[in-house]
Design a protein that fits this description.
The complex is a heterodimer of chains A (137) and B (151). With 137 residues, chain A is of the alpha+beta class. Chain A has helices at residues 11-18, 22-46, 53-56, 80-85, 106-128, and strands at residues 3-6, 58-64, 69-75. In chain A, helix 2 (22-46) packs antiparallel against helix 5 (106-128). Chain A is elongated and about 60 Å long. The two termini of chain A are 29 Å apart. Chain B has 151 residues and is α+β, with helices and mostly antiparallel strands. Chain B has a single domain (5-150), classed as STM4215-like (2-Layer Sandwich). In chain B, strands 1-2-3-5-4 form a five-stranded mixed β-sheet, with helices on one face. In chain B, strand 2 (46-60) and strand 3 (63-78) form a beta hairpin. The longest helix of chain B has 12 residues, at 5-16. The chains are: A alpha+beta (137), B alpha+beta (151). Chain A binds chain B through residues 1, 81-82, 85-93, 95, 100-103, 105, 108-109, 112, and chain B through 32-34, 49, 51-54, 70, 72, 74, 76, 78, 123-125, 127-132, 135, 137, 139, 143.
């Protein structure tokens, strides 16, 4: 299982985003993409660089439509899930006997933090344009 | 007085004291990394790992309204003749996020009242030793969100 995460939000906020006037979608899209790109950079910087496998397999895809934006960040490395959730296997292809490894929730923690920032930025965008946002982030 | 570690401990104790789960994963419940088997004292090959993913304190005037904590909880099993990983993950989920018509989960936490306990995402992946492919581990569980208010 590769590690992946889809940016999605509270029902109230999503409902309001769906009704965004088209002219706001572009700015909202920039915020979504910036959050995903920022998360990718943070995650890549946090991975160990021994082989570079974890870093090189971080992928971001952006999808835009007239009224919305979606960014998906994933790590397709076979080592991503054991790194994120902890591992038991004892030997690596490099010949190291490293014992078990505790979880390092870098990917999930980064996504959660960036998503919180993104929600706040999207909320600000809506409020600046005279819309009301209900529901907590 | 509220001690945040009491939330972690209550969760571990709940899993540790569940006889059906213990029968499936007899080596115990561990925080972040498995130690020696709680059953035999040897290498642990069937166990539960609990770890902290994220924790946020929600403030209120004059104190902390509640704590919002995300845990990763997974069954781990060295692949052998006995394969309990599926049943073990299902038992963990039944304990922490029972679905209707079952009653919601209950958890006694010293100094806190449980507000919410639910699964948010699943965890499932195999792990194969790079140099000896015959050594395979299965990991299965989920991210569980727990909210608790100090009393």
């Amino acid at each position: 299982m590769s590690a992946s995460f889809v940016f999605s939000g509270l029902d109230e906020l999503k409902a309001q985003l769906r009704h965004l006037p088209a002219e706001l979608a572009a700015e909202g899209g920039h915020l979504v993409e910036a959050a995903a790109n920022g998360a990718a950079a943070t995650i890549k910087g946090g991975y160990p660089s021994r082989t570079g496998d974890l870093r090189t397999h971080v992928e971001v895809t952006h999808t835009r439509s007239r009224f919305g934006a979606r960014s998906v960040l994933r790590n397709t490395s076979k080592h991503a899930a054991p790194f994120e959730h902890g591992s038991q296997a004892r030997h690596t292809a490099l010949g190291a006997n490293r014992g078990s490894m505790p979880p390092n929730h870098l990917f999930t923690q980064t996504i959660i933090a960036k998503r919180r920032q993104m929600y706040a930025q999207l909320q600000d965008l809506l409020v600046r344009n005279g819309l009301t946002v209900t529901g907590d982030v | 007085m509220s001690d945040s570690s009491a939330i972690d401990q209550a969760l571990v104790d709940l899993l540790l004291n569940d006889a059906p789960l213990r029968a499936l994963l007899p080596d115990g419940v561990f925080w972040e990394e498995a130690g020696a088997s709680m059953l035999t004292g040897g290498n642990a090959t069937r166990f539960v790992i609990v770890s902290l993913v994220d924790a946020v304190d929600e403030p209120m005037l004059g104190g902390r309204a509640y704590e919002d904590v995300l845990y990763a909880i997974k069954a781990v099993e060295l692949v052998a003749a006995v394969k309990n990983i599926r049943a073990a993950a299902a038992r963990i989920d039944a304990l922490l996020d029972p679905q209707p018509p079952a009653a919601p989960a209950t958890l006694t936490i010293a100094g806190y009242t449980l507000m919410v306990l639910r699964r948010e995402t699943r965890i499932r992946f195999p792990e194969v030793d790079d140099t000896d492919p015959s050594i395979r581990w299965q990991h299965r569980g989920g991210h569980y969100r727990l909210m608790a208010a100090p009393v």
